[in-house]
Design a protein that fits this description.
Layout (H helix, E strand, L loop, with lengths): L21 H4 L5 H11 L11 H18 L3 H8 L5 H17 L11 H14 L7 H10 L3 H8 L6 H26 L4
Helix pairs in contact: 7-9, 8-9
Length: 192
């Protein structure tokens, strides 16, 4: 929702009776309105969902850097990012946000998805932006490039050239990492 627009008195004229000026009514902007106004003053990039994947990632990187510079909390970032989405990206965000809220899922700025969650999210996004990955090899590339670094390294060896192969390698890599972690935890556990 855009910030409230409060009419300001014209310089040199006395405010009219019933004016809604901040000074006369004692109305102050909410903290989120102030944060949004501050964010907008830096003219952050908007996301329309119609750019290439590289341009979208670049826009998100720019917004992330701005959020970091402004020292905005993760909670504030989640609330403010919706104002930077337009057209297809806005429709996707609203639909996704409603679905997550309906399921009771907390929406966070950063979060580690397991592979199953990532695959579901990835396939949904690809459906909304088919121009981003026009063939199976491009879909595999997009999928691989956003994997977490540990799995990316394991999957990228011999670079799969189709989505099915990339997905199978990612599942194997995740399972291997989970086995490795559980073994290292057992080895480090104190003996009775």
């Amino acid at each position: 929702m855009p910030p409230r627009q409060v009419p300001q008195p014209v310089a040199g004229r006395a405010p009219e009776q019933g004016s809604t000026s901040n000074d006369l009514m004692g109305v102050t902007a909410t903290p989120m309105e102030t944060l949004l106004k501050r964010l907008q003053s830096f003219r952050p990039p908007t996301l329309k969902g119609t750019k290439s994947a590289v341009e979208c990632e670049s826009s998100l990187d720019d917004i992330e850097m701005l959020f970091e510079s402004l020292d905005y909390t993760d909670e504030r970032r989640v609330k403010l990012i919706g104002h930077q989405r337009h057209e297809v990206a806005k429709n996707w965000w609203l639909t996704t946000k409603r679905a997550l809220e309906h399921r009771g899922t907390e929406i966070t700025w950063k979060g580690q998805l397991n592979l199953e969650e990532y695959v579901a999210k990835f396939l949904t996004l690809i459906r909304f932006a088919p121009h981003v990955a026009e063939n199976d090899e491009a879909v595999a590339d997009k999928f691989i490039n956003v994997l977490n670094p540990e799995i990316f390294t394991l999957v990228n060896i011999g670079r799969p050239n189709n989505f099915s192969d990339a997905l199978n390698r990612a599942k194997g890599a995740e399972a291997g990492l989970l086995r490795q972690r559980s073994t290292s935890y057992v080895a480090l556990a104190p003996r009775p």
